[in-house]
Design brief:
OB fold (Dihydrolipoamide Acetyltransferase, E2P), 4-stranded antiparallel sheet, 2 domains
Length: 166
């Protein structure tokens, strides 16, 4: 069963991203969150309770005040064109979450530009719903570029690393 605090955190996370729908199933409990434009329903099957959620109007605040929204949108497109031009492999985010480059604040990063990685090399941690998920390189090669910063919120399918395959 989902805790109310977890549901609130997920709603906030969905509000801050371009994700329009999030569905999670855990131990027989199903959670579905949709963005405005559709009726917002959170349905928990284990207990037949339905909550209606209507988010407050979003204020014009960029997620990262230092970078304009246009620059943030241009970054994945630039990464994709560079990937195609140089035959680089993109390691993309398999989920919406928070990107962490190191196993703990005191530790060094999993990888740096210029590091060689194997298919099973852990390159970062993605946190979603207070669960830490290790992301593996899935390719053998050299890290050419790290496209996100530590602590940044990332979206599903967003490029995180560029790797020159061996």
């Amino acid at each position: 069963m989902f805790k109310l605090s977890e549901i609130k955190e997920l709603i906030k996370l969905v509000d801050q991203t371009s994700v329009h729908e999030l569905e999670i199933e855990n131990e027989g409990t199903r959670l579905l969150i949709r963005k405005p434009g559709k009726t917002e329903v959170v349905n928990v099957q284990a207990a037949p309770i339905t909550h209606t959620y209507t988010p407050a109007p979003l204020q014009a605040q960029p997620v990262h005040p230092a970078a304009p929204a246009a620059a943030q949108q241009a970054a994945p497109e630039a990464a994709q064109s560079r990937t195609a031009a140089e035959n680089l492999h993109q390691i993309v985010s398999p989920m919406v979450g928070t990107f962490y480059s190191a196993p703990s604040p005191e530790a060094g990063p999993f990888v740096k530009v210029g590091d060689r990685v194997q298919e099973k090399s852990v390159v970062c941690i993605l946190e979603a719903m207070k669960l830490m998920n290790e992301l593996e390189a899935e390719v053998r090669g050299e890290i050419v570029e790290i496209l996100v910063s530590n602590g940044q919120l990332v979206e599903y399918g967003q490029p995180l690393f560029l790797v020159k395959p061996e």
